[in-house]
TrEMBL record:
GO molecular function, one term: dihydrolipoyl dehydrogenase (NADH) activity
Source species taxonomy: Bacteria, Bacillati, Actinomycetota, Actinomycetes, Kitasatosporales
UniProt name for this protein: NAD(P)/FAD-dependent oxidoreductase
Cofactor info, note text: Binds 1 FAD per subunit.
Origin: domain of life: Bacteria
Cofactor entry: FAD
Pfam family, one: Pyr_redox_dim
C-alpha cells in the first residue's frame, strides 16, 4: 500500500479555477499558509473551456457584424471569416490547454499546488490522490474551501452517451466547424455557441423547449437575439423537445474521432413532433450540475452531488470551517461573481483565523457577498449583445417591490446611430417607486456590454434617481441612453 504523506496548512482549497485561485491568493496574502488541489488544469473551466475560448470565438463574429453596419467599411468585410485563424487565436487565448503560466503564478504568490483528486475524509481534512498513485493528507487549521465548480448537465435520453454529444467543453474546443450542428437549449451557452458556429461555417439548428431564448432576462432580450440569430441563418425552433438521439456511423470511417474533432458520422435527433433532424454534431446546453459527487461530502454529513448552501461569507451552513465558493453554491453561475465571492470568503477566513470581528452579517461589509442577492451583472456575447444587472421586472414584482419599467429604444440615442447604421436595440430600467432607486437595468444592442458597469454601480450604490440625473453622459456615445431613460421616467 502507498504510504500517505501528511501536511498541515492553515487553509486548503479544493479546485484551482479562478475562484479557487482567488480564495488562495487572499488567504495567502493575509499570511495564512495555503494549499490548493486540482485534478485537471490550473485555471479551471473559465480559462480553457468557457469564458476565454468562447469569447475568442465570438469576438471576430461581433467585430465583423459591427463593421458590416458601417458604410465605407462594410464593403471590405463581405467575405467569410477565416475559421482557421479564428480557431488558432482561440487556442492561444486558451493557452493551448497548458497551465504552465497559472502554475507559475501560484508559485509566485506562495500557494502550494497539489495535483490530483481531492476529497474530504472528515472535518478539515482532504485526501489528495495523485495521478502517480501518491496519497497526501492535507489538514487545515482554519478552513477548507470547496471551489470545484460545475459540469454540464445532460438530459436522461437513452443511448445519449454512445452519441458522444458536445457539451460546452467540446463546443469551445472543437478543431473545426461541423457542416451541420444541432444546439439543444435556449440559455447563454446555447445562444453564444449558435452565434459562433453559424458564423464559422456551420448550419445551426436550435431546438428550444421553451417559448423563447434567455428566459431569465427581460423578454425583449431573447426576442432581439432570436431575431439576430435568424437573420444570421440559424434555424431557430421554439416549443420543441428532443425525445431521442442516435448516431449513425460514417460509411467506412473506422474508429470515430473525438467529438471535438469531427469524423463521427451523422447525429439524428427526433423531436416530440416526430421530426427527424440530422447533423454532424449535437450540442446539449441544458444546464449545469455541481461537481460535488466525489469530494467526500458524506464524511462531513452532507449529500454527495448536492449544491452547497452557504451564508453570505460563503461558509457552508451548519459548519464553522467549510466554505463553498463559486458555482457550487448555486448563487450565480458566473466567473466574475465567483471571483467576487472568493474575495469575500478569503477576507472572512483571514479575519476569523486572526480572531477578528465576524462581520458576516453586515450588509455590504467586507465579509458579506451582498451583491449575490440583487446586483448580479451578466453580458451575453451575441449579435446583438445583451447585458443586465439586478432584477428583471418580473423578479422585482415577485420580490414584492412596487416598481415601474421604463423602456427606451436606442433609435433615440445619437451615439447609437454613429455606432452603426440601422442600430437596433432597447434599454429598460426597473425603478423602485417607493425608494426612487434602480432595482435592475437591461440593455440589448451592439456594444452594450461596455455599458453594464455603469448600471451595476447605480444598482449596487442605490443611487437616487434625482442624483443620477446629474451623472451627465458624454455626447455622442451609447451612454446617452441613460439620459433618455431618465427623461422617460420623468415624463
Amino acid at each position: 500500500m502507498t504510504e500517505t504523506e501528511s501536511i498541515v496548512y492553515d487553509v486548503v482549497v479544493v479546485g484551482a479555477g479562478p475562484v479557487g485561485e482567488n480564495v488562495a491568493d487572499r488567504t495567502r496574502a493575509a499570511g495564512l499558509s495555503t494549499a490548493i488541489v486540482e485534478d485537471e488544469l490550473v485555471g479551471g473551466e473559465c480559462s480553457y473551456w468557457a469564458c476565454m475560448p468562447s469569447k475568442a470565438l465570438l469576438r471576430p463574429v461581433i467585430a465583423r457584424a459591427d463593421a458590416r453596419r458601417l458604410p465605407g467599411l462594410s464593403q471590405a468585410v463581405r467575405g467569410p471569416l477565416d475559421a482557421e485563424a479564428v480557431l488558432k487565436r482561440r487556442d492561444y487565448m486558451a493557452s493551448d490547454w497548458k497551465d504552465d503560466g497559472q502554475v507559475q503564478w501560484l508559485n509566485g504568490v506562495g500557494v502550494d499546488l497539489h495535483r490530483g483528486h481531492g476529497r474530504l475524509t472528515g472535518p478539515r481534512t482532504v485526501l489528495v490522490e495523485g495521478p502517480d498513485g501518491s496519497r497526501t493528507e492535507l489538514t487545515a487549521r482554519h478552513a477548507v474551501a470547496v471551489c470545484t465548480g460545475t459540469r454540464a448537465a445532460l438530459p436522461d435520453l437513452p443511448g445519449l452517451a454512445e452519441v458522444r454529444p458536445w457539451t460546452s467543453r467540446e463546443a469551445t474546443s472543437a478543431r473545426r466547424a461541423p457542416e451541420r450542428l444541432i444546439v439543444v437549449g435556449g440559455g447563454v451557452v446555447a445562444v453564444e455557441m449558435a452565434t459562433a458556429w453559424q458564423n464559422l461555417g456551420s448550419q445551426v439548428t436550435m431546438l428550444v423547449r421553451g417559448k423563447g431564448l434567455l428566459p431569465r432576462m427581460e423578454p425583449f432580450a431573447g426576442e432581439l437575439i432570436a431575431q439576430g440569430l435568424t437573420e444570421a441563418g440559424v434555424d431557430l425552433r421554439t416549443g420543441v423537445s428532443v425525445t431521442s438521439v442516435t448516431r449513425e456511423p460514417a460509411a467506412g470511417s473506422g474508429a470515430p474521432d473525438t467529438p471535438a474533432g469531427g469524423g463521427n458520422g451523422t447525429v439524428v435527433a427526433v423531436t416530440d413532433a416526430g421530426e427527424r433532424i440530422e447533423a454532424e454534431e449535437i450540442l446539449f446546453a441544458t444546464g449545469r450540475a455541481p461537481k460535488t459527487d466525489t469530494i467526500g461530502l458524506e464524511t462531513v454529513g452532507l449529500d454527495p452531488g448536492s449544491w452547497l448552501s452557504v451564508d453570505d461569507s460563503m461558509r457552508v451552513e451548519g459548519t464553522d470551517w467549510l466554505y463553498a465558493v463559486g458555482d457550487v453554491n448555486h448563487r450565480a453561475l458566473l466567473t466574475h461573481q465567483g471571483k467576487y465571492q472568493a474575495r469575500i470568503a478569503g477576507a472572512a477566513i483571514a479575519a476569523r483565523a486572526s480572531g477578528g470581528a465576524d462581520e458576516e452579517s453586515a450588509a455590504w461589509g467586507a465579509h458579506a457577498a451582498t451583491a449575490d442577492h440583487g446586483a448580479v451583472p451578466q453580458v451575453v456575447f451575441t449579435d446583438p449583445e445583451a447585458a443586465a444587472v439586478g432584477l428583471s421586472l418580473a423578479e422585482a414584482e415577485q420580490a414584492g417591490h412596487r416598481v415601474r419599467a421604463v423602456d427606451v429604444d436606442f433609435a433615440s440615442v445619437a451615439g447609437a446611430g454613429l455606432y452603426a447604421e440601422g442600430y437596433r436595440g432597447r434599454a429598460r430600467m426597473v425603478v423602485d417607486l417607493e425608494e426612487e432607486i434602480l432595482r435592475g437595468v437591461t440593455f440589448v444592442g451592439p456594444g452594450v456590454g461596455e455599458l453594464i458597469h455603469s448600471a451595476t454601480i447605480a444598482v449596487v450604490g442605490e443611487v437616487p434617481l434625482d442624483r443620477l440625473w446629474h451623472a451627465v453622459p458624454s455626447y455622442p456615445t451609447l451612454s446617452e441612453v441613460w439620459l433618455r431613460l431618465l427623461e422617460a421616467y420623468r415624463g
